[in-house]
Amino acid sequence: MTDTSTANPIPPRDEFKESGALTVESVTHVQQWNDDLFSLKMTRPASFRFRSGEFVMIGLPKEDGKPLLRAYSMASPSYAEELEFLSIIVQDGPLTSRLQHIKPGDPVYLGKKPTGTLVTDALLPGKRLFMLSTGTGLAPFMSLVRDPEVYGMYDEVIVVHSVRRVADLAYRELLESKLEGDPLLDDEDRERMIYVPTVTRESFRNQGRIQTMIEDGRLFEQSKGPQRFVPEEDRVMLCGSMAMIKDHAADLEQRGFTEGSNANPGQYVIERAFVG
Question: Is residue 91 left, alpha or beta, with left meaning phi > 0 and alpha meaning psi from -120 to 50?
Fold first, then answer.
């Protein structure tokens, strides 16, 4: 990511001020997936703990010195030494228009208090876990799918990722390999993971929206279980656009699913912090 502007969009480290809510971390790696999508890794404080699927605030200083922060789901598993985040680039976005230029060694703000509802604690026990995502909504599921504790809870873990273009399928190679080389997952865990990518605007082996694949049964083809949703056995997590979450939540409710939370576990969960 080359900064073509006259002013460096990433302020020097001395403009970052740690506080009771924020630490200042260093970027360790940047992955450019395409012109509109990138991921970054940063140092992780020894005291930073989170549950797979949670989000945290990250950001940069504004011109007035105050932090400009946005919520990002951790894409890294909870045991990882570094923290990883997946981001879309919005050219006129206050944060991502600058964050897209970040490079290894640059400073970045990290919030101290991760939280969220896309966690297994918010779900009742079940047999299959479906993670339905669009775009960068895949991020929390990249954390969960690499967590060995998840495989102790479910017979199958099914990651569904819907994007417009094939190039938008971030982490595709890793997921198609069934997380080959992961240090904590054994072969039995990896065999329980099912990856279902689908593309809506280009030719691909799976084409169409997630809802279409639910209705015609393609979503369930690789599963050894029922070829439909079963509220008594299936658990569902939703992460994507507000329209996607609203539509799928309504569909699940019609199928007999009840929404869960950290305080009252249910059969499906959404991240309400991103929905409003």
Answer: alpha
